[in-house]
Design a protein that fits this description.
The termini are far apart. The protein is mainly α. The model has no long low-confidence stretch (mean pLDDT 87). A two-stranded antiparallel ribbon has the order 1-2. Bound molecules: heme C (HEC).
């Protein structure tokens, strides 16, 4: 009797472990929702990464798909970037390097993005929420995803 109970117990534990390790393949909706909030209300990524129409409104259909910048520095800045890459779907980025970039400002090549890309210092949780949100946006074919 005792042996059977032990076998059943072991099976239950095994079942619990496999259930825990079988993480869902997509990020949970709450995490994506938090990433959306951070991108839209905190990081203001769309100011630079979304093209604007002639009235200065961001174009919804091209959300975060990269854009020429509509402003220039008033003093010369040698490495100034005049356009932004596409962020929808985060093509070309590993999750790990994108999270590091948002936590440290250093990209996959250990260099910061050129100005005016801010060097963000999000914490791990927020950075990975932002990555989850950007991944959830439909990827678009673009040549501007990497420099
Ligand atoms: C003030 C303008 C501005 C804002 C706001 C901004 N970016 Fe950028 N971003 C840029 C520019 C310009 C580049 C291109 C930099 C370059 O070519 O080196 C860039 C590049 C990037 C890159 C690619 C970096 C690389 O080295 O390839 C990523 C990823 C990125 N931005 C993510 C974000 C996210 C996420 C946000 C919001 C949390 C954001 N950006 C907000 C201007 C901005």
């Amino acid at each position: 009797m005792k042996a059977i109970a032990m076998v059943i117990g072991a099976c239950l534990i095994l079942f619990a472990i496999t259930n825990l390790t079988a993480a869902p393949p997509t990020a949970p909706a709450l995490k994506i929702e938090r990433g959306k909030y951070l991108v839209e209300r905190v990081g203001m990524c769309r100011d630079c990464h979304t093209p604007h129409d002639e009235r200065g409104e961001p174009i919804r259909e091209k959300w975060l798909q990269g854009s020429p910048l509509s402003f220039k520095p008033i003093v010369p800045i040698p490495v100034w970037a005049d356009k932004t890459p596409n962020l929808a779907g985060l093509p070309g980025w590993e999750d790990k390097e994108a999270v590091k970039f948002l936590m440290t400002g250093m990209a996959y090549n250990n260099l910061p993005g050129r100005p005016p890309m801010p060097q963000y210092r999000f914490n791990q949780e927020d950075a990975s929420a932002i990555v989850a949100y950007l991944r959830s946006l439909a990827p678009v074919a673009t040549s501007a995803s990497r420099k």
